[in-house]
Amino acid sequence: MPELLTHRRLDQPRPPQRFTVSFDPEVFGQVSERIARFLGTGKFLFWMTVFVIAWIAANLTAVGLQWDPYPFILLNLAFSTQASYAAPLILLAQNRQDDRDRVSLEEDRSRAAQTKADTDYLARELAALRLAIGEVATRDYLRSELDRLREELPGMQSEAEKRRARTAAEDPKDA
User: Do residues 69 and 9 touch, judged by C-beta distance below 8 A?
Assistant: First the structure.
């Protein structure tokens, strides 16, 4: 017997309703990093010092307003609460920084490996080009060969003229 999804069956218990709070861990981490950074500044220390001095001065001088008499237990409680929240926030910020450092280190290693591979490839290509150039006639080699031929050319011309003269003397028709 098909039932519509909008109607609940009365013979079955309802699924448990749970109250869940959802939060973005990235946003929480960013806020905690900001707080941790602020806790480590001189500005925070200055204002905390001003607050503590005002607190103690108000409790020592204002007889009618002594909400926290001399051992300043309420002030100590406030410091303890602040420290109990500050320490985990600072640790969370450090863990996030460690994660960023780890990712950066991985990127640096991969970039270094790629650079090494590129350098090795270029070194092999350069060596291949040097070998190929070694087999090709260079400009200096061609110049030295042309200079040698220029020096030998007058001697070759005189020999060619002598041969022509001999040939013309032996066979006057070819001259």
Answer: no
